[in-house]
Specification:
Blueprint lengths: L4 E6 L5 E2 L16 E2 L1 E2 L15 H19 L4 H5 L4 E9 L5 E8 L5 H14 L7 E3 L2 E16 L4 E4 L2 E4 L7 E2 L3 H11 L13 E9 L5 E8 L5 H12 L5 E2 L2 E2 L2 E2 L2 E9 L7 H22 L3 H14 L4 H13 L3 H15 L8 H4 L2
Parallel strand pairs: 2-4, 3-8
Antiparallel strand pairs: 1-8, 5-6, 5-8, 7-8, 9-10, 11-14, 12-13, 12-17, 15-16
Helix pairs in contact: 6-7, 6-8, 7-8, 8-9
């Protein structure tokens, strides 16, 4: 069986830059002109905060448009089944208020590729994305934008290079802890120590750790996410516990040889002091509320689900994981200003860059 991932290439196309008087090329209701050629092309709005030239903003906007498409387009199943590749061409009008209209597929390659790319472009209005409109003679105008997008199927790489190490992604035998998940949980429970300094303030929360297990059995930390701002003493304990797993792994194999592979772990820190019992109970309650809230949102009882998430965050307003959960729920409901607040705060607490591409658009 062949497995593929999407390699999406954007060939930037814009409304042209005018050198002479522009002729009227099309009219719609209210006899408003749509310009095919303008002095300043419309641009995707992700780079307007930069203190730089229009040319630099335009180049940055093209790169961010590519990132937006890459993160949101799903390579259609029928196109993958038929091994369809190629370039589709969209065109649309960027209105004077930055919204998208008159979107259409000018050239298609079949397999649902044109429809999928068009779906993402049409979703921009609902996501609250407002383009910088084109300008002609110093005035905002309605301008046509042409967007070619290349779909290319490519076999997934066997490995990638991260921080100088090869990390394999295709295995004959995956990496696993000897004895399985329960054995790993018991091992970490024995090794993980709660820092005494946290008991005074009843610090509680989770740290995610991704480790690399090399082909010789060595273990090192690749990435760590502290959702609660627990601090360096907790990081030390997380690193110590996860790297203590050395010698306890059934190593990954590819074509008969052992290869390095990554493994993700979540470590929970619970205070041990007697006076922290209420905090622990509240934290468990908050986790239940977040989980139930997610379930209700998926079950189309969104408002009640959000109320439960908000109640959890009243108990732990600086929990990055809970903020991310509610922020993503707001995103699904097109409540972008509220999503902006939650995801921006989570970014500051957990020091993650997962939402960097979307924040400039939802935080307008």
């Amino acid at each position: 069986m062949r497995y593929y991932f999407l390699l999406l290439m954007l060939i930037i196309g814009t409304a042209g830059y005018a050198q002479e008087e522009v002729a009227v090329t099309d009219t719609v209701s209210m006899d408003t002109t749509i310009y095919e050629v303008v002095e300043m092309a419309p641009r995707f709005p992700a780079c307007e905060g930069l203190d730089t030239t229009i040319a630099v903003k335009q180049k940055c906007a093209e790169q961010q448009l590519l990132a937006f498409l890459y993160q949101n387009i799903n390579y259609p199943f029928e196109a993958r089944r038929q091994n369809i590749e190629g370039t589709i061409v969209l065109r649309f009008v960027v209105e004077m208020d930055g919204t998208i209209s008159n979107s259409e597929v000018m050239r298609d390659i079949g397999g649902g590729c044109g429809e999928e790319a068009l779906r993402i472009v049409n979703a921009m209005n609902g996501l609250g994305i407002r383009w910088v409109p084109g300008q002609h003679k110093g005035q905002d105008v309605r301008a046509r934008y042409v967007l070619p997008v290349r779909f290319k199927l490519q076999a997934p790489p066997d490995f990638e290079i991260v921080q100088g190490d090869s990390i394999w992604q295709v295995f004959d035998k995956p990496l696993q802890f000897i004895g399985g998940g329960d054995s790993l949980a018991n091992f970490l429970s024995e090794k993980l120590k709660y820092p005494k300094v946290g008991n005074d303030s009843c610090l509680i929360g989770n740290i995610d750790v991704q480790v690399l297990v090399r082909s010789n059995g060595d273990v090192r930390v690749l990435e760590m996410t502290d959702y609660n701002g627990l601090g360096d003493q907790f990081w030390y304990e997380a690193i110590n516990a996860t790297t203590s797993t050395i010698g306890h792994w059934d190593l990954a194999e590819h074509k008969g040889r052992k290869v390095p592979a990554a493994f993700d772990m979540t470590l929970g820190f619970t205070p041990e002091a007697e006076h922290c019992k209420v905090t622990i109970e509240q934290y468990n309650e908050a986790i239940d509320l977040i989980n139930e809230g997610n379930f209700m949102i998926d079950g189309e009882d969104a408002e009640q689900g959000l109320k439960m998430m908000s109640k959890a965050l009243e108990l732990f307003p600086n929990d990055g994981a809970m903020l991310i959960a509610r922020g993503q729920a707001y995103m699904e409901l097109n409540r972008f200003s509220e999503a902006c607040v939650d995801l921006s705060k989570a970014k500051q607490i957990a020091l993650v860059d997962w939402f960097d591409a979307i924040l400039p658009m939802i935080c307008q």
